[in-house]
Amino acid sequence: MNILFIHQNFPGQFKHLAPALAARGHNVTAMILKQVKTRNWQGIDIVPYAVSKGTTPGIHPWVSDFETKVIRAEACFNAAQKLRYSGFNPDVIIAHHGWGESMFLKDIWPKAKLGICIC
Description:
By secondary structure, the chain is of the alpha/beta class. The chain has a single domain (2-117), classed as Rossmann fold (3-Layer(aba) Sandwich). The protein has three helices and six strands, in the order E-H-E-E-E-H-E-H-E. Strand 1, helix 1 (17-23) and strand 2 form a beta-alpha-beta unit. It is globular and about 50 Å long. The relative contact order is 0.21.
C-alpha cells in the first residue's frame, strides 16, 4: 500500500506509526515543510516543500490565519503535483489538520482515502 503522511514537522506524532508501516512493507512517503539533510528516514521517503511567501502585511486580522493556511496548502499542493507526476499515487493520505496543508490534496489524488489527525 502507498501511504503518504503530511506534517510540517514530520515525524511529529507519527514517529512510531510511519516507521512501523514502512517496516511492514508499505511504501511510505512523508511531505515536510522544512529543508532536510536526508531524503530517507527509517525507510520513509521524505519530500520537503517550502512556502513562497508570507502573510500579506496589513491583512484583516480575521482572515490572516486562513491566508496562512492557504499559503501552506498551496505549497503542499505544488509539491504533491510533482510527486504525482513522478508516479507516486497514495492509497491513503494521513495529515495533521491544523496547518492547512491537506486542503487541496483530494484535487490531486481524488481516489486516495484522506485521514485527518486531530491530535
